[in-house]
Amino acid sequence: MTTHTKPGLRPANPNFSSGPCAKRPGWSVEALKAAALGRSHRAKIGKSKLEQAIALTREILKVPADYRIGIVPASDTGAVEMALWSLLGERGVDMVAWESFGSGWVTDVAKQLKLADMRKIEAGYGELPDLTKIDFDRDVVFTWNGTTSGVRVPDGDFIPADRKGLTICDATSAAFAQRLDFEKLDVVTFSWQKVLGGEGAHGMLILSPRAVERLETYKPAWPLPKIFRLTSGGKLIEGIFKGETINTPSMLCVEDYLDALNWAKSVGGLETLIARADANAAVLDRFVGTSSWLGHLAVQEETRSNTSVCLSFTDPDVCALDVDGQAAFAKGLVSALDKEGVAYDIGSYRDAPPGLRIWCGATVETSDLEALLPWLDWAFAAQKASLKAAA
Q1: Residue (of 60, 64, 387) closest to 210 by Cα position
Q2: How far from the centroid of its chain's Cα atoms is residue 307's Cα?
Q3: DSSP string computed for 354-386
Q4: Average pLDDT of the chain?
Q5: How do residues 294-331 score in pLDDT, each as one tens digit?
Q6: Is residue 110 located within the same domain as residue 258?
Q7: Is 350 contained in some domain?
């Protein structure tokens, strides 16, 4: 039911951006007062905090003890690029993509690395590709959760344990909200500014023993810039995975990540984080189930994200518009919510079909999403009235 009457209740926190995402409940700048500002990251205090960040990441994500965890530059993008440039080329690679970022990795491998033996296994927005087409004797690159499509792999069952190639997984909008099957993953990357609401510019690179073996036995045919180098003299640079970062990290951002990790631990760890995201996504799912104008972009229920929930228009009048018209309609709706201060940054990604993208990760309060729903109807009704008036 849509209405022109403004709802009375507003979300206490209107931050529903899909990155950088909402800070954890109760966050304030006081959480950063112990930051090692003005100190070297190589000093005892700086290295200790970096080591703590790695240890807490391992504990909360339940990363196997024999996997390395490193803090690397340039957010999740930097972590993925390090993996692609350092590991690919030893054998053929299957690039699996169904949204913007996965498609970006395809472009990088095809046009920058220019690998001759590359296969593309792709699907459009809203669907997963046919995962049975993947050849795991080859290396495989994929996103666990399509941040810009709201489509995720439901689990790691499609990956064989006896694979010969490496699996390289961009998990940036999945880590801390979805169960990552590390035994099936050789490289996992993510950034701090997603599910835990940390700050940008820092990435996490997690390597299995198989990935480390590849690094130590294979040398790419192309030169690697210093910022990508994970080995020296044919051996893994172990310091990277013990808090000795390749370049200078922001100790303010490190402190913020530590605060988020400690919050995650205090509320019950991974299981609680997943439950919070699931509960948030369920609020939107129930709303969509009764909505006359909004639907899920993700076609199959079992592949719908519980973090970056992407929604598309189902109203006949809006659907009758061309893509530019639908984009303008979505922009007007999002702008109205922004002006009211009830929802920020919930437009669909620029390359995705016109619609909404609402973050439901663990730092978002369910009560805020519930308060948002009447405002969605209000904004739609207002835009629909404008559309009819212009006709």
Answers
A1: 64
A2: 8
A3: SEEEEE--TTS-HHHHHHHHHHHHHHHHHHHHH
A4: 97
A5: 999 999 999 999 999 999 999 999 999 999 999 999 99
A6: yes
A7: yes
Choose one of 266, 288, 305: the last residue of a domain. 266
**Which amino acid, residue 125?**
Y
Q: Is 165 exposed, middle or buried (0-12, 13-18, 19+ CB in 10 A)?
A: buried
Give the DSSP letter string of 92-107.
-EEEEESSHHHHHHHH
Q: Are 76 and 104 in contact (CB under 8 A)?
A: no
**What's the Cα-to-Cα distance from 384 to each of 10, 58, 319, 330, 389, rounded to whole Å?**
22, 48, 12, 11, 9
**Between the CA of residue 32 and those of 37, 56, 266, 267, what are the distances in Å?**
10, 17, 17, 19
Tell which of 242, 266, 290 closes a domain. Answer: 266
Say which CATH number the domain at 58 has: 3.40.640.10
Calpha distance 363→220 (Å, rounded):
40
Which among 369, 391, 330, 387 is positioned nearest to 13, based on CA atoms?
A: 369
Is 374 a domain residue? yes
Identify the domain containing residue 333 by its residue range: 270-390
Number of independent structural domains in the chain: 2
Whether residue 331 is contained in a domain is answered as yes
Edge-to-edge strand list for the sheet holding 355-359: 294-296, 308-313, 355-359
CATH number at residue 283: 3.90.1150.10
Same domain? For 315 and 189 the reply is: no
Beta partners for residue 356, in sequence order: 311, 347
Average pLDDT of the residues in 153-167: 98
119 inside domain: yes
3-class SS of residue 173 = coil
Q: Is the dihedral of CA 242, 192, 131, 277 positive or negative?
A: positive
